[in-house]
Design brief:
globular, 28 strands, Jelly Rolls, Spore Coat Polysaccharide Biosynthesis Protein SpsA, Chain A, alpha/beta, 6-stranded antiparallel beta sheet
Length: 477
């Protein structure tokens, strides 16, 4: 029997995915990045929980990615509420906040906590596993989901169970990422499963566990959301009070302290796409063990993974063995395949050196579409703006720069100081410093504009907003 109707999926979107740099960065982390096919992992997660008659999902996301969440949910015809974390405090406070919000709004059923960045193609097997877990959860157990291991993987945590087979197993212990020898031993013994980071629990049970094991954290989260504000689908706790919430993962804070946990084994295809090796493993290798994506060429290479995400950049490998190379618009990473778990160290080094590529893509996403910087030089900057159909930028002015817009695709509706005009392809318009102006796309086709900025200061915070469809404040990006 399908019992999903009493479950609220709680989807965690706060991760940065730094091991997948340079494609995944803070400005567009891996759950929103184009890692698999034409979609992204967040969209696939939404699709997975849209097929089982679940309740409306509750998303926990950062302020910076709130419009990604709403836009992609809308693209799938889904409604959702979004809890916005003022700052990352790891998973335990986020999940406790979700449980408190559900309880306050009359939901005393179950919550299915899901990472937003895992790949689980087997939707039927996933649904069956949730149904198996509901029986145990209805008996007040906290239910985890363990992946049947296919090898001695050292990049995952492990769940140890009392038996090696069965629909629902009792959990004995949790183990951190093991060394190779320990992983091989676990595999040989049986009864060990990879920890998928997915769990099912009743709202009341989760809050009772939080009160038992993390009373200070629970009180701090309650204090932060006492005066929660709502902005359409967005819910915001108090930012200053949220800073006082202790940061801890749900595993350490609560789950590993419980003595009544069940594990539902899942033998379907699953990957957390936690490093570049796991991303490339989604594709089949050629006869030389190479996996190639995008505009790449491999000559006399073996066991090598190459990916170029930029059609204008050809990535060529010659005589390589055991190498991972990824090229984007503004960065190229070359690594030994045995070191892909350490890629986040690259990000730390770049961040310390003040290199913008550490966290920021050239393409900057906005609720109305996106822009990318083509040329940045003292006194001027050239951008390409992509405005989605039926979307418009805020009514705004700039104190330090003028702008020249050239429409290269579509038709723009431009408002300058209360005068509105249509600007067609191959036409342009000029905006002086201080002019109140707005760019809109009133058509059903994308609008592409080349913007030339000139002035003494060209920072993105030089924006005075007078009206905005997305309720962004003064200077907010």
């Amino acid at each position: 029997m399908n019992t999903h109707h009493s479950i609220v999926p709680v989807i965690l979107c706060g991760g940065s995915g730094s091991r997948l740099w340079p494609l995944s960065r803070k400005s567009l982390p891996k759950q929103f990045a184009p890692l698999v096919g034409d979609g992204n992992l967040f969209e696939l997660t939404l699709q997975r929980i849209s097929e089982g008659h679940f309740n409306k999902p509750l998303i926990v996301a950062s302020e910076a990615h709130r419009f990604h969440v709403l836009k992609q949910a809308a693209n799938l015809g889904m409604q959702c509420e979004v809890l916005l974390e003022p700052a990352g405090r790891n998973t335990a406070p986020a999940i406790i906040m979700a449980a408190l919000h559900l309880k306050a709004n009359g939901h005393d059923g179950h919550m299915l906590v899901l990472p937003s960045d895992h790949l689980i193609p087997d939707h039927i097997g996933f649904s069956e596993a949730i149904n198996a877990g509901m029986t145990a959860s209805q008996n007040s157990k906290l239910v985890t989901f363990g992946i049947s291991p296919t090898g001695p993987e050292t990049g995952y945590g492990y769940i140890q169970t009392e038996n090696s087979s069965g629909a629902v197993l009792d959990v004995c212990a949790f183990h951190e990422k093991p060394a190779v020898a320990k992983a091989e031993q676990m595999l040989a013994e049986g009864g060990y499963f990879w920890n998928a980071g997915i769990f099912l629990v009743s709202v009341d049970r989760l809050l009772a566990l939080a009160e038992l094991h993390q009373p200070e954290m629970l009180a701090a989260v309650e204090d932060a959301i006492a005066d929660m504000t709502r902005d359409d689908s967005f819910l915001r706790p108090d930012a200053e009070k949220w800073k006082l919430v202790p940061a801890e993962s749900i595993d350490y804070a609560i789950i590993e302290k419980c003595d009544d946990i069940a594990c539902v084994p899942f033998s379907g295809s699953w990957s957390d796409l936690g490093d570049w090796n796991s991303v490339f493993a989604v594709d089949g290798a050629d006869k030389n063990g190479n996996r190639l994506r995008g505009g790449v060429t491999a000559v006399d290479c073996v066991n090598t993974n190459l990916w170029s995400t930029n059609d204008q950049t050809r990535l060529v490998g010659l005589g390589l063995d055991g190498i991972v190379a990824v090229a984007t618009d503004d960065a190229i990473m070359v690594a030994n395949a045995s070191r892909t778990q350490d890629v986040r160290e690259i990000v730390a080094v770049l961040d310390k050196a003040g290199v913008p590529q550490a966290h920021q893509h050239t393409k900057d996403y906005r609720p109305w579409g996106w822009f990318e910087s083509l040329i940045v030089a003292p006194g001027y900057q050239v951008k390409r703006l992509h405005v989605d159909p039926r979307a418009r930028l805020s009514l705004q002015s700039h104190q330090h720069r003028s702008e020249h817009w050239v429409v290269v695709a579509g038709t723009a509706t431009v408002l300058i100081n209360e005068r509105e005009k249509q600007v067609n392809t191959n036409e342009s318009v000029y905006i002086n410093v201080g002019d109140k102006h707005r760019l809109a796309n009133d058509t059903d086709q994308p609008l592409v504009v080349i913007e030339v900025q000139t002035g003494s200061y060209l920072g993105e915070d030089d924006i005075v907003r007078y009206h905005d469809d997305f309720s962004r404040g003064l200077g907010e990006l």
